Hints:
It contains four helices and two strands. The protein is mostly helical. It has a domain at about 50-75. Helix 1 runs antiparallel to helix 2. It starts with about 25 loop residues before the first strand and ends with a helix. About 0% of the residues are buried.
Amino acid sequence: MATEVAPTQIDEKKAPADEPQREWRSCCFKLHPQVLVFMTQVFFSAFLIFFSAYKLADAGQPDPLYVSMLTTTVGVWLPSPLHTASKSSLLT
């Protein structure tokens, strides 16, 4: 006796083929790709900051490698004063 599996019907409208997929689906949850990319960036940045701070606190003489990793990572997340200031204040 063979068991037949009925095709599942999805109530949601399907996106056109030329439109990029906006969410990833799993058996248990839906995930937006932008959220995953952002959380990965936050996790990796936090790891670099804490690792660099630990190595700088542990060593007697600061190693330029860990100083540059720390300042680069923090610099990526902090906004530049040139980008946040109004254009009129830069001209005067």
